[in-house]
Amino acid sequence: xxxxxxxxxxxxxxxxxxxxxxxxxxxxxxxxxxxxxxxxxxxxxxxxxxxxxxxxxxxxxxxxxxxxxxxxxxxxxxxxxxxxxxxxxxxxxxxxxxxxxxxxxxxxxxxxxxxxxxxxxxxxxxxxxx
Length: 130
Fold this sequence. Notes:
By secondary structure, this protein is α/β, with parallel strands linked by helices. The protein has a single domain (2-129), classed as Rossmann fold, CATH 3.40.50.1010. Helices cover 59% and strands 11% of the residues. It contains 7 helices and 5 strands. It has helices spanning 6-14, 19-29, 38-46, 51-61, 72-87, 95-107, 118-125, and strands spanning 2-4, 34-37, 66-67, 110-112, 128-129. The chain has a 5-stranded parallel sheet with strand order 3-2-1-4-5, with helices on both faces. The N and C termini lie close together (11 Å).
C-alpha cells in the first residue's frame, strides 16, 4: 500500500505539475492500493474555502480507504523516532510528519510525498518512499 502525503494532494488540488503529482496519477491509474491517513485528510480539508469544498474534498478522497495513523504506542514510537533524528542533526518541522513516517515504517507501506522532512526518515529510519 501507498500512503499519499498532504503535500501531494494539495499540489494536485492546486494544479501544480510536480513529479509527485504525476506519480499519484500513475499509481491511481494502475490501480495500486492508495490509502488516505486521517491526519492527512484533516490537513487537506483545513485548506477548504468553504463547507461545500470540504464536502467535495471528503467525497473525492473517500474513494480510497481511510486509515487511522495514531494510537498510543505509535505516539511513543514517533516521539522516539523524532529524538533519533534530532540526535543525528535533523529536526522535523511538524509532529504530524513524524507520525506519518513512523506509521509507514511500522506497517511496511510506502509514502508518496513532496516534503523535505521525510528525507531524514528515509535515510536514518528506513522509510520507504515512492
